[in-house]
Every structure is written in structure tokens, then in C-alpha cells.
Amino acid sequence: MYKIQTLNNIAAKGLDRLPRELYEASSDINNPDAIVLRSYKMHDMEVPESVLAVGRAGAGVNNIPIERMTEMGVPVFNTPGANANAVKELVIAGLFLAARNICQGWEFARGLEGDDATINKETEAGKKHFAGFELPGHTLGVIGLGAIGVNVANAARALGMDVVGFDPGITVSSAWALESGVRQAHSVDEVVSRSDMVTMHVPYSDATANIIGAERVGMLRQGGVILNFSRAGIVDDQAVVDALDKGHLHAYINDFPTNLTKNHERCITLPHLGASTREAEENCAIMVADQVREYLENGNVHNSVNFPEVNMPRAENCERMTVVNANVPNMLGQVSSALADAGLNIDDMYNKSRGEIAYTVVDVAGSIPREVADTIRNIPGVLKVRVLE
What DSSP assignment string belongs to 77-128? Predict the structure, then answer.
């Protein structure tokens, strides 16, 4: 019986992917085999040694101590793309909110007083203050072309916008998914300088903190719009507000309220609604449950932020062992030697490294004596050994 500790409410459709005859999932579990969470901050949490995997039902993992998990030999899974449509829809809504001054116009209309004739007269007199612009013919810059960025870029093209995108690490699958009319930029500076509106879809890190600062705000075309539905800290809010006050920017649409932005007349600030749809939460929960289950039962790794991708089918009449170790010379040789010394025949083996760790999956004919697993576990540099029947 595998024990799963949930640190947040996880959609039932996700938990239903874990068969009840094999899994117990609850927030009140001691010594869990895996932890599944959404936004819970794990940095100050004491993670039990029993934990074999951590699954984040969402894309961002800055609430998880990745380095500490890696040192423990624990993969951290996330769900890139599961909430892509939800975020895309809100970004597109943000484009319209900015272009048509919808929120400002709504506030004006809500403040009208008097009888209907008076309201009608004031409406006709006041609407000129909220005239906007249409999206076709304007250029949207997309920084980050993962699942969300690609969806946003394609949707903007469908609306008649010109789109320019940049992502130094774009994957082959993302490149294939991009609409052919999306133009390539070679740097963030190039994206910003060629755009009327800019949206970011990158994880928060030291490299992306304040990626849109005062200098790049100044590069954006006069009357430009900045959208941030990625992470707080990606945009320098002070630089944006200064540009709004000077009239260089038209609007700032973001999902992360602060005292600086929440009441500014040219900021539309939402309460982190990007992935807050029933469908996105269910998609994320299903995806992370499947990934954690596949790792626990078969040792395969898909969508981990700290482990290499591994997908090795189970060999018949074999027992499977997985080994996580420091990525240093002769580790695989020592593992193979320990199995050979015990007279065990390797039917299939897969070894791959990522950064400072390496991960090995090996199928051995027959059964693996537990003392052999202990021998491998005691090799200096080995972080975690599991035998999967």
C-alpha cells in the first residue's frame, strides 16, 4: 500500500487515478511514500526520509526545495501544459481589457447616478474618455514559448495580431506547435523593442527576476501594454508604474496584487486567477497523479524538474531496481558489479544523468535479494535504492 500525503486540496479526478486497493491518500499521513501539493510552501517543512517522490499539480515549483529534494534522491514532478488553456484564455482576456479600457469604463458606468435619461446623457458625454484600439495590426511579444506561450502566440495570431516570440530553450514539440506566422526574435530586448504589447511565460528564477525592468520598459513602443500572468517578480512593478505615470505605457495587466499596483488607475490586477478553472485543476491533478504513480510502481520518470526523463518498459519475469546516485565516474560499474557478484543476470538497463545526479533503472532476471540492494545502497554516492517487485 502506497501512502500519499496531500498538502493542498487535490481535485478528486486526480486522486481517483490512484487505485484504492494500492493507495491511501490523505492530508493526515505519517511517513508518506509521496507528497502531492499545489501551492503549499515546503521550504520550511521537514520532509520525511520515507518520501520517494514529490508531485506539484501545476507548472511552477518555486514553492518546493528542489535542491534539497535532489540531495535526498527524490524526483519532483510538475504538470507543464495541463493549465495552458486556462492561462491562455486569461491572457487573451487581458489583451481586450487593456485595448478597450473595459475595467475603467465599467467603473465609470457603475458610478453614474440619476434617472435613466440623465445616465444616458452622461454616458454619451463620458464614453470618449474610454476609447480604445483594436488588436489586429498591433504586435504582441511573447517571452517564453512553452505550452502556455505557444497557445497565447497562436491565439493572438488568430485574432489578427502580429506576434514575435523568444525562447532560447524552445523544444522541438513547441516549435512544431507554433503557428507559422509567429516571427522569431533572438533576445528579450528584440522582442520588447518590436512590440506594442508584451506577455511573459517563464518560470521565476534568478535569471528571470525583473526580466522586464526600467530599461526594457523604455524599449516598448509608446502606449505599450505589459501583461504578467507568469509569476510575481518577473516584472519590476515600480518601473512599470513609473512608465504609466509618465504616459509611456498604456496599461499593466497582471495577476499578482501589490499595494503599488492594486489601486493604480492604469493597472488591472487580478487575484492570481491564471490557472483557477475547474478544468485546469482537474487536468493538473490527473497528470501529477499519473506521473507519481508511474514512478512509484515502475520507476519511470516523466516531467520531472530535477531527474532525467526515463521510460523503460518492464521486462517479463524480472524484478526491477532503481538507483539514484551522484553523477560521478564508475557508479554504474559498481552497481553492475554488485549484481554480477551475486550471480544476477541483467535483462535490461537504462542509465541517464541530469546535472549532479544520475538515475539507473535495471531489470534483473528472477528476484533481487535484499542484501544485494543493501550492498548497492552502501556504495558511497548512492542516494536512493528501490526494489520494485
Answer: E--TTTTHHHHHHHHHHHHHHHHTTHHHHHHHHHT--S-HHHHHHHHHHHGG
